[in-house]
């Protein structure tokens, strides 16, 4: 019997069907072991020796693999064809060797697609494990571990509130923060454009002013309204005739098939997918045999695939859409060993696969790959110059016509940000023509700051800089979101206060290690290891020699000294110059105190030097105070109608709040997030200060029902049981009948704010197990269940758009990842001596060392 090891159970089932009875295929369920999250897992003083630990939830599967390996005549390691796949194979081999279960013959096979032909061909061409790729994996894993476990403790102790730092993670975060700084420092510049709406032969077109009073007009030339109006008047007064018509043929070639990063970018632009969602769906398409391997830097396609694509093009379109020769694309990947074939369909005869997000992503991959072998698009770009009788003023009209669409008939690459496009159609114009002038406009514009990064543009920037590798981008961006260093709004990255503070700390004390050039250079060294051009321990030694003393130096500094340095480093952001020239550090409350950065157990904030006499504070990420850049200090909303005391709106380190009274007797209340600051009136402030609100006594228990605002939002409380309210307004509106019903509903659902046990939707029968799948609302969000396994719905999937196949795959993935259920222990025999309890292994936890 020959034992084959792959990563996933879905892959195992498919491959076993292809190989026949002499083969038994088992899944490792991904990585089987890792560096334990504790000090000492990598020993720099001992040649960077690594102490690996098996994952606790893989025990049952490892036993099954070991048991089968002992009976096998040959072990075939068939994990994914990349560095991580090579590493999984190596780990399996090492674990079996330690268990003395390793068969005498061990082979490594790789295939780029899960089809019968690809698998059987790979089995006929086995090889040994690639030691260079394994060394590159070990170097990268050790490097990420050393950075994470050396730098993160420095952050925890010297920068309260910070969560972690990582080799690639921190540099990706710096890109987002740098862009935020660019936007904040951007000074808009006014400019005007003058254009004439004209008509020739009944067809309208627009011509823009490009020469005025003999001078060439650039974008920012006309900067004042007066000049714009004068230019408009000159155009209105002039009679313009065509001076020159220039027609130029233009050819556009199709883009190459997808690599990992271009797939992530295009799926973000066109489908709105996050990088992690794209990779999850692509993984499932790969395991289903629909597409080739989805982690690749390569843009080339196999010769047989090119032939199949050309055949599909010939069947779909006429001969003009098929170029005479096949198109050949060359990869730009620096590491040829990892430059596999591009992402493409395994069969160009299948233009549809699956449903929902799977179908949408497959359609994108199919069209891009097919278009890459289609003919170029032929266009005609026309430029028309018009001049008035004086020769002093000139207009220009541009247009573009598609003569032959070529690949554009099937696919056009998306853009991150809209750009001006000369795609307008022009009427037929000749030299000497005098088109009619219908209207002249002068429009005011302002230059715009650079746009915030989208997932697509951030991945593109990381790739351009050579930071990280495409297979790691999804996890890197996910870490930034999970750590709350960034937030996503309208598909754009916004830097959070904590992210800005961590970046500033690293720039001030570890500038080299978050520099773009250094990180890119380190990536090249890691590629050199996988290419056999560098020794992995030597690369680690060179890095560690400088990094370790630097972290020790920062660790020795007092927190107060760190804060003082950060205060100085961040001064341009925290205390920008004021328009009136006054001191930007002057305390707006007491007048004579100086504002400075302070550190607390919950993070950084701005406070007055006259503390405790002056208790003024504001949040760290509030440059100069409010949104207008001017700190107005406390704001008196009015007097309480009963006490006559002032109710004051203030800004603290945890956000805006209201206060009535002083000292220990003061009553305070946070301003709820669903009540914007601009809507905070005196009436609302009085209501908030009156909380908690007693609705009345419960008709069954006689105990009070109270409405209030808590850590998780507005709620009802009765006899220790909670019910959730939908908004702050409902706290003051909910009556007795409604409150009793909400509390009863919450009790029936088993928890605070839990949703109904009735399904939100019955999706249908599981295509493989026949169990009925339902979409449910749970305490922590929507989930799907087949009655045995529950799987949380990822944030990237809208519950209204969820398909049966997607739900089934979520359940399958959750079931595969679940640890084995422990059986009941047999009762101990009487008189048997008890063995000392084994020390519990430390639980696995994620370490931000990406």
TrEMBL record:
SUPFAM superfamilies per the UniProt record, alphabetical: Prokaryotic type I DNA topoisomerase, Zinc beta-ribbon
Biased composition (Basic and acidic residues): 625-634
Composition bias type Basic residues, residue spans: 821-850
EC number: 5.6.2.1
Site (Interaction with DNA): 31, 140-141, 144, 156, 295, 483
Chain intervals for the UniProt region annotation (Interaction with DNA): 164-169
Keywords from the named record: DNA-binding, Isomerase, Magnesium, Metal-binding, Topoisomerase, Zinc, Zinc-finger
Active site feature: 293
Xref: Pfam families: Topoisom_bac (PF01131), Toprim (PF01751), Toprim_C_rpt (PF13368), Zn_ribbon_Top1 (PF01396)
Top-level division of the source organism's lineage: Bacteria
Ranges of residues in domain Topo IA-type catalytic: 130-551
CDD domains: TOP1Ac (cd00186), TOPRIM_TopoIA_TopoI (cd03363)
Domain Toprim: 1-114
Enzyme class: isomerase
Catalysis performed (reactions): ATP-independent breakage of single-stranded DNA, followed by passage and rejoining
Residue numbers spanned by region Disordered: 622-651, 815-850
Oligomer and partners: Monomer.
Family to which the UniProt record says this protein belongs: Belongs to the type IA topoisomerase family.
Function noted in UniProt: Releases the supercoiling and torsional tension of DNA, which is introduced during the DNA replication and transcription, by transiently cleaving and rejoining one strand of the DNA duplex. Introduces a single-strand break via transesterification at a target site in duplex DNA. The scissile phosphodiester is attacked by the catalytic tyrosine of the enzyme, resulting in the formation of a DNA-(5'-phosphotyrosyl)-enzyme intermediate and the expulsion of a 3'-OH DNA strand. The free DNA strand then undergoes passage around the unbroken strand, thus removing DNA supercoils.
UniProt protein name: DNA topoisomerase 1
Organism: Sphingobium fuliginis (strain ATCC 27551)
Name of the gene this protein is made from: topA
